[in-house]
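Sorry to interrupt, but I need a hand with the structure work. Please put the record directly below this note.
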Amino acid sequence: MGKQAAFIREFLIDGHPSRAAVRAGYAKPAAKQTATRLLTDPRIAAEIKDRTKTALDSVAEKTSVTKAEVVQMAMAVLRGAQVDRAWGAARASVDLVARLHGYIIERRDTRVITALTDLTLEELKAIAAADERDGRRAIDG
């Protein structure tokens, strides 16, 4: 598995199949086809998946920070910001701690509205009221 092992190693460097094939010693004119063939080989695909997972697990382990540690850091920043009267940093720290503890929850409306029937009665009434305030007629008739 000499060239194949080299391909796996090279592919994991930048994720570019054709370049990995060439760096592994395969012919440049057929690099794209060779890379496609190699990536669809079940043994090679499994090895790449396994090595990628191992690498990601290693990074996660090295960089893991607990919620408690983040709160401690934010509180240290808050105390320093209060002393320095850096109110922007203080507010950001309070905001972060509040979000981590669930006191602030961001909600976004992800609906796609394509017709009036997609709106609730309350939403339609609010639109009509806003139009009346602005001096527009909500419905021409």
Summary: The chain is about 70% helix and 0% strand. Helices lie at 2-14, 17-23, 31-40, 42-63, 67-84, 87-100, 121-133. The chain has three domains: 2-63, 67-100, 111-141.
